[in-house]
Structure formats: structure tokens, C-alpha cells
Design a protein that fits this description.
Helix content: 25-40%
Oligomer: single chain
Radius of gyration: 20 Å
Shape: globular
Number of strands: 16
Distance between the termini: 25 Å
Bound molecules: ribose-5-phosphate
Structural class: alpha/beta
Order of helices and strands: EHEEEEHEHEHEHEHEEEEHEHEEH
Largest sheet: 6 strands, parallel
Number of helices: 9
Strand content: 25-35%
């Protein structure tokens, strides 16, 4: 097996190669004057099982094209199999069509494109909607990035309680609560499909956050709006310390400041996306990804 780190592998490729005990190669990467990416595989891969590691944020469109180019080059060179490790898979949130907006359901196009490029196995972490990923015509493996993240948070808290800011994040809250040995609940939220604005529809009843260290968990933090709403709710209900933990720290401009302004004391995340380690406790999930590659997950589609 040969692990190739793409231009936005974020160092995960090298770590998983050492964890799997296999060969490692940096990809060629230059940018043409017009902004095009030039990528390349600098050693022959014919007959090899190739793993390409490429996260897709920031610059999701560029990063996806680079992944397609690398995978298709490996296919052209007659690699035996091509697995793409995409720790953060962009477009995962574009999984529904809203008639009033007229949007494309883009995640399906992305999955088809990756498959067409020659990728037969994909490994990702904390996908926005694992149901939609079943459309991938190959093996789709979800690495467990939640347990290492919860273990990191556990080191710092003594009286935790876990809050999911919406029902979709309930599975994350449940896993955190198991690791932290505490209770958990969730808030019902609604996002305006046109403006993206988030509002709380219904808060959990009979919760007592008093003197608790509240851990707000989610798959990702983008604008920070979801966490801000949940933090404001938690403060209004007497929470003491509040921390936010999410696998993917997209952290759009101003997200950190918005969360701090809403009383979030600390941010925890993983290295699926490069982010300022001085601002967020960052957990390396390379071992979780290596374990996922080793696993014999069944193909997602027959
Ligand atoms: C949405 O359903 C996701 O699970 C996250 O809650 C959301 O993407 C976070 O985005 P933001 O930080 O912009 O609220």
C-alpha cells in the first residue's frame, strides 16, 4: 500500500502511513499563473493499492478538483485500487433540494465525480448526513473522530454535561456522554433556508445546567451561529463554564470571536481542517483514520 498526501492532506497522510507501516509519497503541487492546480504522482503506482489523502477545506472546489486529478492519474497509471481519505468532505451539507431556493443537490454530483475519477473506497469523518453518502458507488467508511475528540475534552472537565444544538448532533452528544460519563440533551433548532440564520424552536425541558461545565457538540463549526445560539441558551439556564467541540473546524471569518462573545470559554476540534492551534485544542485523528482503512467495511452499494 502507498499513501499519497495531496496538497491539503494537513499532515494526516504521513501519520497514517506510519501508523499503517506502509510507503508514503508527497504529491507534486504547483499553481499555474491563471490559478490552475498542477498535481502529480512522482513515483510509479501500477499494480499498487493507493491511498490519497486530501481534505477539502479551505477552498473546497480547488481541493476537490486536485483530488479528482490525483485519483484519475493513479487510475491512468493502472493502480490496483484507489482509496480517497477525505477527512472533511465538502458539499456534504448540500444534500437536500428546497423548492423555494432552487438549489442543486450537489453532494450526489460530488460522489459520482469521485467515483468516476477511479475512487472505489472513501474514508471520511463525522459526515453531515451519512444517509446521503450511501449513494457512493463503492465502499464508504466513516472513521470514528468523535471518541478521540471526547477523550481530549474529558482531560479538562470535572462536572460535564453535553448539549447537542440540534437533533442531528444527538449521536455525537450520546458518544460524548458515554466517554465523559455524564448526561446529555438536545435543542430543536431551525435554519432559515434562504438566509442561513439559526433560531431555537424548542429548548429541552427540565434541564438543570447550574454549576455544570457544558460541552456543546456538533459535527462542524462554520459561522459559529449554531454554537452561539446554544451557548446563549445554556447561559440563560445557569451553565457555568461552556466549551464547544466539533470534529470539523471550518471556522469562517469571525466564528471564533462570535463564540467567545457568546460566552464560549474554549473550542475543541480535530485536524480534519487546518486551524489555529492557539485558538482551539486540536486532536490528531490519524490513528482513527488508519483504523478505518484497516477495517473491512462493506460496500455502501451492492
Ligand atoms: C448543520 O446542520 C451542521 O450540523 C452544523 O450545525 C452547522 O453546519 C454549523 O454551522 P454554523 O457554525 O454556521 O452554524
Amino acid at each position: 500500500m502507498l499513501v499519497i498526501e495531496g496538497p491539503s492532506g494537513n499532515g494526516i497522510g504521513k501519520s497514517i502511513a506510519s501508523s499503517l507501516g506502509c510507503d508514503f509519497l508527497e504529491s507534486l503541487h504547483t499553481i499555474f499563473p491563471d490559478g490552475e492546480s498542477e498535481v502529480g504522482i512522482t513515483a510509479p503506482v501500477e499494480g499498487k493499492d493507493v491511498v490519497i489523502v486530501q481534505s477539502t477545506c479551505p477552498m473546497p472546489d480547488k481541493r476537490l478538483i486536485e483530488l479528482v486529478l490525483l485519483a484519475n492519474e493513479a487510475k491512468r497509471q493502472k493502480a490496483r485500487s484507489i482509496c480517497a481519505v477525505v477527512p472533511y468532505l465538502a458539499y456534504s451539507r448540500q444534500d437536500q433540494r428546497f423548492e423555494e431556493k432552487g438549489n442543486a443537490v450537489s453532494i450526489y454530483t460530488i460522489l459520482e465525480m469521485l467515483n468516476f475519477a477511479g475512487i472505489s473506497t472513501m474514508v471520511t469523518a463525522a459526515p453531515h448526513n451519512s444517509e446521503s453518502l450511501k449513494a457512493f458507488n463503492g465502499r464508504m467508511i466513516v472513521a470514528d473522530a468523535i471518541t478521540p475528540l471526547a477523550n481530549e475534552v474529558k482531560k479538562d472537565l470535572s462536572k460535564p454535561f453535553v448539549l447537542a444544538p440540534d437533533k442531528d448532533a444527538l449521536y455525537i452528544a450520546k458518544r460524548f456522554a458515554e466517554v465523559l460519563g455524564c448526561g446529555y440533551t438536545y435543542i430543536k433548532k431551525q435554519r432559515n433556508k434562504l438566509t442561513g440564520e439559526v433560531k431555537i424552536l424548542e429548548a429541552p425541558k427540565d434541564v438543570d445546567f447550574k454549576d455544570k461545565e457544558l460541552v456543546i457538540v456538533d459535527d462542524m463549526i462554520s459561522t459559529g451561529g449554531t454554537i452561539v445560539q446554544a451557548a446563549q441558551f445554556a447561559h440563560a439556564n445557569g451553565a457555568g463554564r461552556i466549551v464547544a467541540a466539533a470534529v470539523h473546524l471550518v471556522m469562517a471569518d469571525g466564528a471564533y470571536e462570535r463564540m467567545r462573545g457568546a460566552g464560549v470559554d474554549a473550542v475543541y476540534g480535530t485536524n480534519t481542517i487546518p486551524y489555529d492551534r492557539a485558538r482551539a485544542h486540536t486532536v490528531d485523528i490519524s490513528d482513527a483514520i488508519a483504523a478505518a482503512i484497516r477495517s473491512k467495511a462493506a460496500p455502501t452499494k451492492a
